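User: Here's a chain of 136 residues. Predict its fold as tokens.
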Amino acid sequence: MSDAEVSLPPLPEDGLIARMGISIMTVTPDSATGTMPVEGNTQPYGLLHGGASAVLAESLASLAAAAHAGPDGIAVGVDLNMTHVRGARHGIVTGVATAIHRGRTVAAYSIEITDESGATVSVGRLTCAIRPRHAT
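Assistant: Prediction complete.
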């Protein structure tokens, strides 16, 4: 599959990506970029919730892995880890997932989430299993 931007099936309007306010900007098999508001995704101290960062990270990397899998495959996340290095209290955060490895059965992506000033908020890694799509 080419590394050009791909067209994915529409995302569910009532799914987690929509509920979190995530906007997907670009998706290719090599990378995916998106944004998410801090507002509405905070923990009790007013900081961006670590779980919200994980949702952004896994969403972006999973979409890139799905693009890598192509129309005859699916990508299923099997391992996600996140390190939160700086708090964010307002504005928009941007996530960029970048391929580490794109194989026949496994794809791995590193993800960096930054605030509006470009400072790193969280970093993570997602490993996806690549499986054939089976008709149901």
